[in-house]
Structure to design on (651 residues):
């Protein structure tokens, strides 16, 4: 496939061959594999190919709108497609359009609505709305046979050389621009030239040829009313050459115009299973490959060094502590053994700690399964909204694992009110997420955007939360609380030990800064692609890369957490429970800093509500990432602490 042959030659020296083979396996093009049941549609000659509208989007406002929020031509009956949960949450409102497209049938120019002697008239209010959407850089998204429309962009890499030597780099932009502005004037794209590509299926003799749609492109044009010649049969004639002027939209008065379109079909060698390659190889992935491999090498190199240092130091410590003939000298030393009687002392607020860790386990299981399933190609972009739907349902069903881990830890921390603990686990993190989303949704409602979650969907989400997630958390918590608590290798003293004064670098915030660098360094390139997918309406499809990065994230969080708790215990500070949970999630602080950087440098958002949406959803991402990385680090540190204190002789 097209996307597979783009691996740069510089990345294949023999010493990196294992890494390259692993990455090639993990990033095998997901677009060639579809969920059973998503079968291709075969068209015969002159069969209708339905063009549907999805929504209008803009990276400047982050507010999607449904297609008919603007005065486009409407069919006699408007029919909305039944949508899944993910599509509703994304703001998709898929609806039929009046475009009449027949398989392998050309149309030179046709008027969409209005007659030759009576063009369409936009009122002052409609003109103002259209002008506002154009000035906000809105894109229109259409689909044909579930394939999104794209605008071809031809970029020339050799600008200084001869015209013949110029290398043309073709990229595709999702959707098409609603219009454009030039010298403070606003112009609407009122003519669409559809270019559809079909693949002719090989059949036996005496059988009628069947066709499959494999690409959907559009060339939007702005042609003023006077330059379009329409007849009584709704056909029209486009002006020749570049003599025509664009269709201006004056927001202060009524505007008359025609909406027209043309259809052109071309045969293509692209097979149906590979038709998404055009959309998924929109940008050069060489930098992506190089950065990911660098992250892999650097992180494993640093992790190896950390492991060697800490293992050698620990072996020396344990050997010294276990010398029977040197007990008095050992007792006078400072070190982690001196706090053995306090290291497992339950922390403050054990219920909240265990609840947050339970939600972290829920998130971890959900993310791991979603990325793995997506890596296998079962959540490809053709299954619209499937990723978000799967994530929502998985989070609900993973409540049983979150409840079990939270219940067992709560009992280990000498907790007794398991029912209250289970309710806290089921409602604390989801309640914060729901509260923030509800507040943001109110602002989106006020803008009449399709991104606002409808009230019935909100009720359905609440029913899922209290009808599926809450009972499962209670079930898991009940069994976790009944299970034998974690076996701590040393007894806890009745009187707490005095903690010596700590050095400046043992400060909690300094620890967060130090612990967050390594995990963030492993994933910040992937973060750029994820942010582009979320905020700039791009497709994200490199789930093989993401799975590898997730594994590296788990390894680096565990390593750094162990190092931080070791230093803390060596400083004779045994209050490690909460501190380790906070410090292990230190990379979330860098994610927040990166999100601010991305907002300032990459996005052109200036209004209040889009900015509020950006930082509201960013806060949810940072909170979730902190829970995830904090939970990974906490359990790694807990296993490490139990291991080292089990290895020394305690009098």
């Amino acid at each position: 496939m097209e996307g597979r042959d783009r691996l740069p030659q510089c990345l294949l020296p023999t010493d990196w061959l294992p890494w390259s083979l692993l990455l090639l396996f993990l990033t095998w093009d997901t677009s060639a594999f579809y969920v059973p049941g998503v079968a291709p549609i075969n068209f015969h000659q002159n069969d209708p190919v339905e063009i549907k509208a999805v929504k209008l989007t803009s990276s400047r406002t982050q507010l999607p709108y449904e297609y008919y929020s603007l005065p486009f031509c409407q069919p006699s009956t408007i029919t909305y497609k039944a949508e899944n949960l993910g599509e509703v949450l994304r703001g998709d409102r898929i609806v039929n359009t009046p475009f009449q497209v027949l398989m392998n049938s050309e149309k030179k120019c046709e008027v969409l609505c209005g007659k030759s002697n009576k063009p369409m008239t936009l009122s002052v209010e409609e003109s103002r709305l259209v002008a506002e959407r154009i000035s906000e850089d809105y894109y229109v998204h259409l689909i044909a046979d579930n394939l999104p429309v794209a605008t071809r962009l031809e970029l020339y890499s050799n600008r200084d050389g001869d015209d013949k030597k110029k290398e043309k780099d073709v990229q595709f932009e999702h959707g098409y621009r609603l219009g454009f502005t030039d010298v403070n004037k606003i112009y609407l794209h009122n003519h669409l030239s559809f270019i559809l590509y079909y693949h002719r299926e090989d059949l036996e003799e005496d059988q009628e040829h069947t066709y499959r749609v494999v690409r959907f492109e559009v060339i939007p044009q702005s042609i003023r009313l006077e330059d379009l010649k329409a007849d009584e049969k709704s056909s029209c004639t486009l002006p020749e050459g570049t003599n025509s002027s664009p269709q201006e939209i004056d927001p202060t008065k009524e505007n008359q115009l025609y909406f027209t379109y043309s259809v052109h079909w071309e045969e293509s060698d692209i097979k149906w299973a590979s038709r998404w390659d055009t959309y998924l190889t929109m940008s050069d992935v060489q930098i992506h490959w190089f950065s990911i491999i660098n992250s892999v090498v650097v992180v494993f190199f640093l992790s190896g060094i950390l492991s060697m240092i800490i293992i050698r130091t620990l072996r020396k410590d344990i050997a010294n502590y276990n010398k029977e003939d040197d007990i008095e000298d050992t007792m006078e030393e400072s070190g982690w053994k001196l706090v053995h009687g306090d290291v497992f002392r339950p922390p403050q607020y054990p219920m909240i700690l265990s609840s947050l860790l339970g939600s972290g386990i829920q998130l971890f299981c959900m993310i791991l399964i979603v990325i793995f399933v997506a890596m296998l190609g079962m959540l490809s972009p053709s299954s619209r909204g499937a990723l978000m739907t799967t994530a929502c349902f998985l989070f609900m069903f993973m409540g049983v694992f979150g409840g079990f881990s939270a219940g067992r830890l709560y009992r280990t921390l000498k907790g007794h009110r398991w029912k209250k603990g289970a309710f806290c686990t089921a409602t604390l993190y989801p309640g914060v997420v729901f509260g923030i989303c509800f507040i943001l949704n109110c602002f989106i409602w006020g803008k009449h955007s399709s991104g606002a979650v409808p009230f019935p969907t909100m009720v359905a989400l609440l029913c899922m939360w209290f009808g599926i997630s809450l009972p499962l958390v209670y079930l898991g918590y009940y069994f976790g609380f009944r299970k034998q608590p974690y076996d701590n290798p040393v007894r806890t003293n009745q009187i707490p030990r005095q903690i010596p004064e700590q050095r400046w670098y043992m400060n909690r915030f300094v620890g967060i800064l130090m612990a967050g660098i390594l995990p963030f360094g492993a994933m910040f390139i992937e973060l750029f692609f994820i942010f582009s997918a979320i905020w700039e309406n791009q497709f994200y499809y490199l789930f093989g890369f993401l799975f590898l990065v997730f594994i590296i994230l788990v390894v680096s969080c565990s390593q750094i957490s162990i190092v931080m708790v070791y230093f803390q215990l060596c400083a004779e500070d045994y209050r490690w429970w909460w501190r380790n949970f906070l410090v292990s999630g230190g990379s979330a602080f860098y994610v927040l800093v990166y999100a601010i950087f991305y907002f300032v440098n990459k996005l052109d958002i200036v209004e209040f509500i889009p900015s509020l949406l950006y930082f509201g959803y960013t806060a949810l991402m940072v909170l979730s990432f902190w829970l995830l990385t904090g939970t990974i680090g906490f359990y790694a540190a807990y296993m490490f602490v139990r291991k080292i204190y089990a290895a020394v002789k305690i009098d």
Q: What stands out?
A: The radius of gyration is 30 Å. The longest strand covers residues 211-221. Residues 408 and 483 are 7 Å apart (CA to CA). Residues 1-37 have pLDDT under 50 and may be disordered.
